[in-house]
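Field: COMPLEX_INPUT
Field: COMPONENT_COUNT = two
Field: RESIDUE_TOTAL = 605
Field: MODE = joint
Values follow.
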Amino acid sequence: MSEFLQFAFSGLTVGAIYALIALGFTLIYNTSQVINFAQGEFVMLSGMTTAFAAAVGIPLPLAAVLGIFVTVIFGVMLHRLAIEPARGASPVTLIIITIGASILMRGVAAIVFDKNFHSFASPLGDAPIKVAGAAILPQSLLILAGATIIVAALWLFLNRTLAGKAMLATAANPIAAGLVGIDTSRMIGMSFMLSAAIGAVGGILATPITLTNYAMGTSLALKGFVAAMVGGMGSPIGAVVGGLMLGLFEQFGAGYVSSQYKDAIAVIILLLVLFAIPNGLFGKAGIERV
Amino acid sequence: MARRFFAVPYALVVGIALVVVVLPLVLPSGFYLRVAALVYINAIAVIGLNLLMGYAGQVSLGHAGFFGIGAYAVSLGPAVLKLPVWLSLIAGALLSGVMAFAVGRPILRLRGYYLAVATLGLGLLIWMFFNNASDLTGGPNGMQVPRLVLFGWRATSPSTWYWISGATLVLGIWIALNLINSPTGRAFRAIHDSETASRVLGIDIARYKSLVFVLSAVYAAIAGSYFSLFDGFVTPDTCGFIRSIEFVVMAVLGGLGSILGSIVGAGILVVLPQALTVFQEYEEIVLGLIMIVFMIFLPAGVVPSVIARLRWRPA
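Field: COMPLEX_OUTPUT
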């Protein structure tokens, strides 16, 4: 039982990070139909910036704000300088652009920072909390709390504010949204800002446990993408559920079957989910126009 | 007959064959032959992927998996089954095709990004197998690949591989062009344009999708075998996610739906990093920038965009 609890808890912790990355994919996809493969780089960039800022003695809350700020600037630049100029290009062209941006950001991080692993101490300390025989790192609780707050805040933003509703309208029908006076291009830009900010918070929350490194973005983007697809691309609830599922599959697979093949187990389960439900758990069935 | 032979598609075969023959006379050293051979080997895999993506409209983010099956076939075949290298190469291509056939039907039912994530998963599974089966493949450390011996003649030098890969590329282009200009090729393009409309026209969509998937997997496996034979060593990185992405980038950068584009795309992505070693530290930055700039200004890919511009100019 304590073993089960241990795996469940570490699965939820990892899954919460995946969920945040998947949410970033979903937000940008909904407004612009772009799959942003630089999403993992947002996580890396904020983790690195915060770790370096903390290392030179800047207080952690200030360092975290700096990390989010730098990442959001990159998100805005990605939209302004790379996505906006290529407006109207095919989805696969836009994907290649985001992959290019991801390689570019990795290269910048390797030069501005370095190629080593970095971290900073968790504000809650490193002493594990014992719960029914399972050891839980205090930072895990911070990750879960942080992810919950972000999901709740995002829900409130999208459903209770004018800007959020404008963004939903842009996602539902860009032409109609434009006709009622919504600046859809600004909404797309805002979705890049939001995605960058969400990824940045994820990076700061995860770094004390996972460490950070200039090259970690690719595998994170991969996990986030898979999570978003399993949940059903375009569905925020799907992104959260998909992320948590992926994290749990990985940890239970590693714990009960084989730690060597933990990723394989997760991938196989995800493939089975897709075969059974071709549009993901919460995805809309596609209608093909002839 | 003569007229048909010199029609545009065959001009491409003859043109590339000429380039393959003339290039060694112009290139100053063996290093350049090595780079050229790498371009040809990558181009073989990318042409296969282009048939799938550019003509039939099905995305694959897992083609490095098939590339890896080919790459490991020529090292595992001789080491484990004591097969000759050339037979292992054929066996690898067959295995890759059979595997694509087996998973093709369920996977190709998915569309768009869902297909992308399923092929990505498939590629990852193949990579994980080669990475984890340490007692068989040496795991992350990789394994030695024996030299190809044909009729008692060992293929070792870059120039030998230059000719083998060049000849295979020309053959690959010829097969691809024949296919594209056949009723089967028209069926692929119909599926690309609209699955519903193709079904109404009586095209067996599942069969054609499966066919092009198998074919592209065989192209990738042959390229993979050449790649590891050429290198003499194979590691799981040969078939990692990054390589799948590289293939897609080559196909899109050069131009989807253009065979010449696949060769140009492979050329750009293979030659560029070699040229960029001067910048060393800045290699990733320059590579990323070039991908972004090319896709902003030539969104349809280099070859189709250039052709469109040439045609547009008033005569």
